Amino acid sequence: MASDETPDRDTLSSMKVSELRQMCSERSLLVSGKKDELISRLLGSPDAPESAPAASTSRGPEDIDDAIDRLIARVSSEAPAEEEPEEEEAEEEVLEAEIVVEEEPEPEIPETVVLEPEEEDPWFSGVIPSEEPPQMFLDDEDAEEPSLVITVPSFSGLKANWKPISTVAVVILLVGAIAFYFVQQDHSFTARPLRYGDHMDFTITKTTVSITGDEMIGYLRDAVSPTLDEVCGELHAGVTGTGSISIRKGGPGDITHGLDSDLEGAVSARDAYGREHLTAEQILTHDLSIDLEGKVRNDGVCSNTGWIREDNGLTSTSKSWREITGKTTIRTDSQVSFTDSDGQLSDVRAVIYGTEDFGVLGDLAPILTFPLTPIELHDFFGDESLEEGDKSNDDINWQSDWRWQVGGEINTAAHGLVYPITIFHFEIGRCLGHAVIDIQVKRGNPWPVKQEVDILIDKDEQTSDCNFFVSAGTQAALPEGSLRVIMEMTETSSNAGSTPVHWGTAYAGSPGVGEDVPTDKRQWGLAMPDESELRMFDLEEAVQCLMANHSTRDAALALDSGGYIWQAAWSQPTRSPEWNMSWVSDDDSSGWIILRSQGSSCSLIAEGDFEDGEFKWNRGAVPETLTLELLETRILSETRYPELNPFIDSGDNWDVDVTYAYRLSVSEESELLGMLPGGLGEGQVTIAGSRTWEDSGRDNALSFVMNAETSRMVAWYHTSLPAD
C-alpha cells in the first residue's frame, strides 16, 4: 500500500494473506496468525482467538502461510531489521538447500520430505551472489545420497529490511512448500566430520587455574624452574589469550607411498615403533598472557607471604597425527615457551606416542587436556542426531564415562542459532571432584563455537564407591593437593575445508599387524639381557666382573643366592663406561653398587643399601624382554625417530653424555621412579634414557621412555632453561 491510511474491513477482506502480512510488517505489527487475526490487528482490534484445529489431516493455505511466517521469523532472527550491515557482507552470503523426498506407499498421506544440509544448514547460509538464474543440479560430492540442491539468486541487502527476507523465503517455498512445512520444526544437530583445511580461531577468557598443595605445585615448579622455585602451598593463575585449531591439508609430497597418491590431504607420520602411517594432522596453537599469584617460602618454611608475577607469556604449538583407518592418535608433538615477568625464557618440547602405556596417568590425560582444546564434535558424538532433551543415559549404545544432555536451541548474538550441550564425567564426579564442560554447537562447525570448562581434581574427594582408578594406582599417580580449572573459549572466526578426511580408508602403505615389531624375547638370568656391540662394558661384562672381582660384596652375595638386578643404568661420566646397578635378594634386602670399567677389570666406585622392604623380590613376575642391544639399535635409528636422534646420537653410537637404563617394576612403588610410564603395573620393564648439557648459557635436558617388552616408544621430552 502506498498510503499509510488503513482500508476498511471489506477492503482488507478482499486482499490476500501475503498482502496483509506485508501491511502488518510495514506498520511494525506481528505478522503471524490467520487472515481474520491480521485484519483485526490492522484495524487496531485485539487478536481474534484461534479457531479449533480441523479434524482433517490436510493442510490449507493458512497453514502454509503460518509455516512461511515461522520460516521468515527464524531466518530474520539472526540479523534484526534495524541492523545495517555493509553491502559487501550481504553479497557474500550463501543459501543452499538440499531437499530429499521420501516416497510414501499410500497416496492419501502427504509425502514426508527431509531437508539435509549439503555444506551447512540453509537457515544460516545467506544468499549466493550470482548473475545466473536459479539452477537445480545433482551434487556430485554427495552422490551416495539421493539429493537435489537448489541455488537461489542473490538479493542485495538481504538483512537490511524485511522485504528481501520474505522474497527469499517465498522463492524457496515455491519450490517445496510442503517440504518446509514438515521440516521447519525439525530442530536437531548432527556433528560434521572433519575436513582437510578446517580452521578455527578462538579467544580464551574468564580462565583461572588454582593449585593447592605443595606436592602438586612441585610438579609445575620443577617444569618451569626457576620461575616458581620459591612458590609453595598455593598458586593461582589468571589466563587470557587467543588460539587456533586446524586440520592441515597435506600435499603430494606428504605421502610417501606411490599407490596412496589418491588420498591427497593426508600426511605421512611415524608411530611409536617408527613405522609410517597416513594420518590427519591437527595443529593447535595458543598465545596466552598469565598472571601468577601464590605463597612463597621464607627461610625454607612455606609462609603466607604473598607473591605476584604479572604479565607472563606462554606460547605453544601442539601437533597431533591420527591414523586415518583406525582414527587412533599415533603421536603428539607439543612445544611450549614460557616467558616470565623478568624476561626469563623456558622452553619445553614433549613428544607422546599415545597414552596406553601411561596407566592411570593415561586415563587422566584426555580429561586434563580438554580445557585448552576445542572438542572435536564428530569424534565425541559420532553420527548421533541430537535434539532438545536428548541424554546419553537414554542411548543404550553410549559406553563412555563422559555423559551429556542437550538443551533447547537458542539464538546467540555472536553465533546465531546454537544448541547448548552439558558434558560431565560421571566417575570423576563421584570420585575425584568434578569435570563439567558446557558447549554450544552450530551446524556445519566441527568444533564448538563456545566451550566452558569447570574441572576439579583432588584425590581427597575419593569415596568408598570410587572405581574410576584402582586405589593404589590413584595414590601413586596423583600428588597431594587439588587442581581447579575454569575456562571459557569462544570462536572468533572459522573456515571450512573442502575435502573430507579419509577416515576408515585402507591404504597401500599401512603397516601390517605386527609388522616391524620385534618378537625375539629372552628370559632373564641375573639381569636383563644386554649383548651390546655398540657400548663398551655391556651388562654381562659388568656382572661377570662383579662376581669375579668383588664376590664378597652384598650385591654379589645377593645375586649368588637367587637375587637379580632390577634396575641398571649405563653412563660415561668420566668418559670410562660404568654401571649403576640396583639389586634385590630373595629375603627382600636390597641395595646398589657402581662399577667402572678399568682395562680388563672393573673398579668399585660406591655401594649402599636401601631400607628393608623398600623393594620386593618377585622373580616370578619378571617378564621376558628384548635385549638392551636390540632396543638401543632401534632408539638410535635416524629414520625411526628423526626428531629425537640429534639429541642422543654421536656417529651411530650414544652421545657421551647419555645415560641408558632399564627398570623392572614388580610392585606399585609410590615414589617418583615408580610412576614412570610402564612402571605402575606388576611385572613390567621400562627402558629410559637421559642427557643433560649446557649450550649458549642454557641448561638442556633430554629424556625418553620405551617399553622393553615391545620396543614401543612411549614418550620423550626436551627442556631448555636459563642456566643457574
UniProtKB/TrEMBL annotation:
TM stretches of this protein: 165-183
SUPFAM superfamilies assigned: SAP domain
Start-end of Acidic residues biased regions: 80-93
Pfam families cross-referenced by the UniProt entry: SAP
SMART domains in alphabetical order: SAP
Residue ranges constituting the SAP domain according to the UniProt record: 12-46
Compositional bias segments (type: Low complexity): 45-58
Gene Ontology BP, a term: poly(A)+ mRNA export from nucleus
Chain positions covered by the region annotation Disordered: 41-67, 74-93
Keywords: Membrane, Phosphoprotein, Transmembrane, Transmembrane helix
Family annotation (InterPro entries): SAP_dom, SAP_dom_sf, SAP_domain_ribonucleoprotein
Family: Belongs to the SAP domain-containing ribonucleoprotein family.
Name assigned to this protein: SAP domain-containing protein
Organism for this UniProt entry: Candidatus Thalassarchaeum betae
